[in-house]
Each structure stands twice: as structure tokens, then as C-alpha cells.
Amino acid sequence: MGVVLAAGAGRRFLASGGAGPKQRALVRGVPMVVATLAAVTRAGLDEVVVVQGAADLRDLVPMGVVVLDNPRWEEGLATSLHVALDHARAAGHDAAVVGLADQPGVRSEAWAALAIAPSAPPIAVATYAGRRGNPVCLHLTVWDLLPTTGDEGARALMRDRPELVREVPCTGEPHDVDTLEDLDRWS
Asked: Is residue 78 within 8 Å of residue 152, measured between CB atoms?
């Protein structure tokens, strides 16, 4: 299952002069969340979900993508991750490939590579030129180890339990669009 986390308010983007919500900001002529979802859906995952919170994105989400609401989005990214993992568990998935809506340069090949990563060790993380980024594949055996609040998802677990992690070399541009200046680089 592919998961796009898109629940945040984009405060840094707004503070830098961007018009919100950030997920709707145009990247090469399309809303950022649409560009990200296009890459995920091209990866051929069995299900794709997007977690929304601060902004309603339903009108942008392509058919076939499941929209999940996170009423606790203000408590941090970890709450959105758990909304997605609760859905994954209920749907019978044994792994989730998780990425961020504000990383439109992550290619479908990265999503696909993480999806086929073996389940041992149970966390697979994309690397770009040797640096860790997104997406991250989380096998169900680690879901209960992830933080439930705050702005760290799997990063804290990967830092504390390196033996659980495999790196998967990928190509693409994994940079976040956090400010208007970041968006200008993409446009």
C-alpha cells in the first residue's frame, strides 16, 4: 500500500509568503499533491491512500485513491501515519510505503523499489546519493513501535534501532517544498 501524508497546514510555506494550502501549490502546472499522487499511482501499488487534515483535498485526488481524514493532524505527522496504518491493518496489508505530499520530485521508481523491498529487515528507506529520504517502507512488524504523536514518523525508530533498517538506492529529487523559495525552484 502506498501512503501520501498531506495533512499539515504548511506553516513555513505560508510564513514565507506562499498562498495556502501548500498541497494545492502548483508545481510545473499541477497541484503538488496531484504530482506526488501521480508518481505513487504509477508505481503499481495495490492501494494508494492520502491522509488529509488541515485542508480538504478530495477535489484533487484521482479516482481510485482513498482519502483518509486525520482530525488530530495538529498533533503532528505521527498521527497521520497512524491513521494510514490503522487503515492498512484493517485492509489486511502487511506493509506500507510512506511518503510526503510536499516531495513532488520523488519518482514512481522509488515508490516501486521500496514496495518490493524484502520484509527483513522490516524498514526499507530510500537513499539519494547516499542520504536517507522518502519514501520509507514499513512492515507491519514495526507499526506498533512507531511514535503516536509528534513530527517524527519512522525517523526516530530508524535512529534508535538501526538493525531494523535497509537502505534502497533511488534516483530523483527528494527535497521538501517547505517555503515559497523551494516552490520557485520547482517552477
From this structure: yes
For residue 30, give Cα distances in angstroms to 53, 126, 141, 159. Answer: 20, 25, 36, 35
Q: Answer yes or no: are the C-beta atoms of 22 and 11 closer than 8 Å.
A: no
- Number of domains present in the structure of the chain: 1
pTM: 0.96
Domain span at 157: 2-186
Rg value, the chain, Cα: 15
Answer whether 49's CB lies under 8 Å from 5's CB: no
SS3 (DSSP) at 134: strand
> Residue 169's beta-bridge partner residues?
127
Q: What is the pLDDT of residues 100-120, one digit of tens each?
A: 999 999 999 999 999 998 888
Summarize pLDDT for 17-70 with one digit per residue, the tens. 998 899 999 999 999 999 999 999 999 999 999 999 999 999 999 999 999 999
Contacts of 160 (CB under 8 A, 6+ apart): none
The CATH number of the domain holding residue 39 is: 3.90.550.10
Is residue 48 a contact partner of residue 66, using CB atoms and an 8 Å limit?
yes
3-state secondary structure of 80: helix
Q: How distant is the alpha carbon of residue 11 from its chain centre?
A: 18
